[in-house]
Every structure is written in C-alpha cells, then in structure tokens.
Design a protein that fits this description.
6 helices, 3-stranded antiparallel sheet
C-alpha cells in the first residue's frame, strides 16, 4: 500500500463517511432483529451457508473463507454455537487435523425460524429504502471493488447509467 500523503478530498471524505454510516446502520438494525430470535449475524451466516451445502456440512477452512474470518476465530465461534446445539463438528476425512462443521436439526430449525425475520430486516434497513437505480449502483460498486468478470467501468445491460 502506497502512503503518498494524498489526503481525501472533501467529497471523498463525505462519501467514505456515508459508506461507514450505512454499514453501521444496516448491520446494527439487522443484528438487533436477529438477536430478537436468539441469533447473532455470524450465527445466521454460519447456519445459512451450511444449509446450502450438501449434507449441510462444510470444512472449517471453507466456512472461514466464506465469512472472511480466520480459522481460529471461526473455531471459537463454532464452539459457542456447538454448546447451543446449532452445529456439531466431525472429523474431516480429507485432513486428519481439520474438522467439518455440520448443521444440526436444532440449527436448521433455528435458521428456519430466523430466515423470515432476517429477510424482513434486510428489506426494512436496506432494500426498501433504495430505488432500483440505487440497488443497481450498489451492484456496480461491488463489481468494481471486487473485479468480477462483468465490466465494472460502466452500466450493465438493462441498468440505468
């Protein structure tokens, strides 16, 4: 990372601070709503991604990569989830040192109870506050920041400029 001393312009600083406020506001709202059904955002992410996997299982490493977490952080979190009966650990057949996280029936039930709350929360705190043009802009920004295959330099087909 270059530290060439180039400070943010006032417009850039306002945009950066607006982005931070958006992140805090949306995450605070969704975290509050999930807490009402007994889950944290990381709990929900672990449960939902496991539910999408064959046999509702994923290696600790794969799960950590999906969440952008270190293995040790996820392992500590999984221990807390395991004590609540939401997940179990199994030996990883392809790596004797690793483990596989497995969604339990109780974890699946918790996810099924929480999913409608989560969707309503995402709508309330984010989706329903934006126009279709705003949502398309968020997708364009994501493509630009993450360099996906679609051309991130301009509007996509069917989207507003």
């Amino acid at each position: 990372m270059s530290t060439n001393g180039r400070w943010l312009t006032p417009d850039e600083e306002r945009a950066w601070r607006a982005f931070l406020r958006i992140m805090v506001s949306v995450r605070t709202g969704t975290a509050h709503d999930l807490a009402a059904v007994g889950l944290s955002e990381p709990d929900y992410e672990v449960l939902s991604t496991l539910s999408e996997q064959p046999d509702h299982a994923s290696t600790l490493g794969e799960q950590a990569d999906k969440m952008g977490w270190s293995r040790s952080r996820l392992s500590r979190h999984a221990t807390r989830m395991e004590s609540r009966g939401l997940v179990t650990r199994a030996e990883d057949p392809s790596d004797g040192r690793g483990c596989v996280l497995v969604l339990t029936a109780q974890g699946l039930a918790a996810l099924e109870d929480a999913a409608p709350v989560h969707v309503a929360s995402v709508r309330q705190h984010f989706i329903d506050r934006l126009t279709p043009h705003d949502l398309a802009a968020v997708e364009r920004i994501d493509r630009r920041l993450h360099g996906t295959a679609a051309d991130a330099s301009g509007p996509t087909e069917g989207s507003a400029p």
